[in-house]
Write a structure and sequence with these properties.
33 strands; alpha+beta; about 600 residues
Length: about 600
């Protein structure tokens, strides 16, 4: 395999139909090409694509990059805001910030897709605020949103659902003709809204735990048991809002994913996952034994990723498959496709996928803050406590416990085995990327190094599994966190009493900005540090385990309300990664109480 410095791949050719993305030999489809022009792939949080090869990439807190074929990338920053989500319609991109504001990046659009009073002046030249939501006097803060072909939907924090754009019955106002530049009120008490790149309808969930829909109903794609178009919202029978992970709709079909990973389709045959039309959501047979965790639908395309990093696609394909009424060839039922080689033996990396009218993008999710923290550690080379000495007097700074725990080899043994070969410094650095954050950029090279170290390839353990094992390895813990204990202290006792938690020093340094700052004023010989947070020993123990595993785990012995309250405060106090998922996990625990 040729070495590549990117983990972002695309499939598709500019000016070609999406149905031409695949080789005649199904075992080699789709054709993946590394997208090398995108720099700093590890900072990518989300990619969305609309018309042609155009795509918008969200990087960091508030940075965006827009790519068009044969043009230089355009960079944008939304000042004084933090991005919450980005989405794409046909020729418009919308950006939602955590403060509830909406921004637009658009091309001239005659169908009112841009939620502005003067959309004609837009041409992917600048990010423009959407005054309808951004003005203080409006007090309309958006919580979530969705886009379909030439229409947009916004759920505000008060549960009001607004929509704008081309109508055709999908604005829910009982009409089908008049387009709306500015959003109009559609429904109230809404919790989520779902769309699709080229959908002619939309779905939403309500505070009453119901699923509803509105718009064009070609071949029964609304899932309501008939094919009648709906100009006003109607309930989708037999579905509860709490069961739905994702739902996407396109011009003639809809796909629903449950939180258990089950996949249901309705609408036109060949695109719904079946060989016949379905007017209600029906579980797709070929995916019944799979847990789908990521789905994206494009122009009559469906792509589903499982929890085991398997990619399934249907609705398009090679000439070996039937032709639909439009002359497009398609795979009628889910078919397993290949992944780029660097992902094939690396199930620990969660993948994300997106597609537009003519291109598919596949890329790793870097929202795993555990992986992010150790990637930063590797790149910064701070707090290194050892060196890997190679031939030609080359020394590479490393963190001893990280390297030894991942290889189950002592540093001296690794040096002896590697020095028997002629690996360059750059090749060893690629190996260390696997050590620190599971990145495989050159599978052939990594296999050679594994063979040299007498390790089995592909790797049996993921980074997360090895770190979990490290948590259980009490003998290798080299540091003590002292927690002040006031509960059993008598009033006449002068000295403070502390409870001890053993931990690996590098874990504290990697996972907490607070401890990084503290260690700048502590000698390297120090073997302990005091925690002044005032939090209970139970909460801190849970947090420490989270540092290793990325999971908040409560037992029956814990006071859940106390732990939740203390851990909610821990993100800011301990200066955790901004992508920490602690709050999401705590909210899930709250919902189960």
């Amino acid at each position: 395999m040729n070495q590549t410095n990117t983990q972002i791949f695309y499939s598709g050719k500019r000016n070609n139909s999406i149905n031409q993305l695949f080789n005649q030999n199904e075992n080699k489809c789709p054709r993946w090409t590394p997208l090398s022009k995108i720099k700093n792939a590890n900072k990518v949080r989300k990619i969305v694509s609309g018309y042609n090869h155009n795509c918008l990439i969200w990087k960091g807190i508030n940075n965006l990059e827009f790519y068009q074929p044969n043009n230089k990338p355009k960079s944008f920053t939304i000042e004084k805001e933090e991005i919450k989500d980005i989405q794409s319609g046909y020729s418009t991109y919308l950006i939602l910030t955590k403060s509830g504001k909406v921004f637009s990046l658009a091309q001239n659009c005659s169908y009112c897709e841009v939620p502005l009073s003067d959309p004609e002046s837009s041409n992917y030249d600048k990010i423009r605020p959407v005054p309808f939501f951004n003005k203080k006097e409006n007090n309309r803060k958006v919580d979530t949103f969705a886009m379909v072909g030439w229409s947009n939907y916004f759920v505000c924090k008060d549960g009001k659902l607004f929509g704008n754009g081309y109508n055709m019955g999908r604005l829910g106002d009982g009409t089908s003709n008049e387009a709306k530049n500015l959003p109009i009120l559609i429904f109230e008490n809404v919790t989520r809204v779902f769309g699709g790149v080229q959908g002619y309808s939309f779905f939403f969930t309500t505070k009453n735990n119901e699923l509803a829909t509105c718009g064009a109903n070609q071949s029964g794609c609304l899932g309501i048991g008939n094919s009648d178009n709906q100009k006003s919202p109607v309930k989708v029978p037999n579905w509860k809002a709490e069961d739905i992970l994702d739902l996407q709709t396109n011009d003639s079909y809809s796909i629903l994913i449950t939180k258990e990973g089950k996949t249901y389709g309705c609408g036109r045959a060949g695109y719904n996952g079946f060989t016949t039309d379905k007017s209600t959501f029906t579980e797709i047979e070929e995916l019944k034994n799979k847990k789908v965790v990521e789905y994206f639908g494009g122009t009559r395309i469906s792509l589903a990723l499982t929890n085991e990093n398997e990619l399934f696609g249907w609705g398009f394909g090679s000439d070996n498959h039937p032709t639909d009424q439009y002359g497009n060839t398609r795979i009628q039922k889910p078919h397993k496709f290949n992944l780029p080689e660097i992902f094939q033996n690396n199930p620990s990396i969660k993948l994300k996928i997106t597609c537009g009218t003519q291109c598919i993008y596949l890329y790793p999710s870097y929202n795993n803050c555990l992986i992010q923290d150790f990637q930063k550690l590797f790149e910064s080379k701070i707090f290194c406590d050892s060196k890997l000495s190679l031939n030609e007097n080359t020394q590479i700074p490393i963190h001893k416990i990280v390297v030894e725990s991942r290889t189950n080899l002592q540093i001296s043994t690794i040096e002896d085995l590697l020095n028997k070969e002629s690996f360059s410094k750059q090749e060893i650095l690629l190996f260390l990327k696997w050590v620190y954050f599971d990145e495989i950029t050159n599978a052939d090279l990594l296999k050679q190094i594994f063979n040299s170290l007498n390790l089995s390839y592909p790797p049996k353990n993921t980074f997360q599994k090895d770190l979990h094992d490290l948590f259980n390895d009490e003998d290798s813990k080299d540091f003590t966190l002292l927690i002040k204990n006031d509960e059993d202290k008598d009033e006449d006792e002068e000295e403070d009493e502390y409870e001890e938690i053993l931990i690996h020093k590098i874990i504290l340094l990697t996972r907490s900005g607070l401890f990084r700052e503290m260690f700048e004023n502590i000698t390297e010989e120090s073997k302990s540090v005091k925690d002044y947070s005032g939090k209970s020993i139970e909460s801190i123990e849970i947090l420490i385990k989270y540092f290793y595993t990325g999971k908040i785990e409560l037992t029956a012995d814990h006071d859940p309300l106390l732990v939740i309250e203390e851990l909610e405060d821990s993100i800011e106090y301990y200066q955790l990664n901004e992508n920490s998922n602690i709050l999401n996990q705590l909210n899930e625990i709250k919902n189960k109480l």
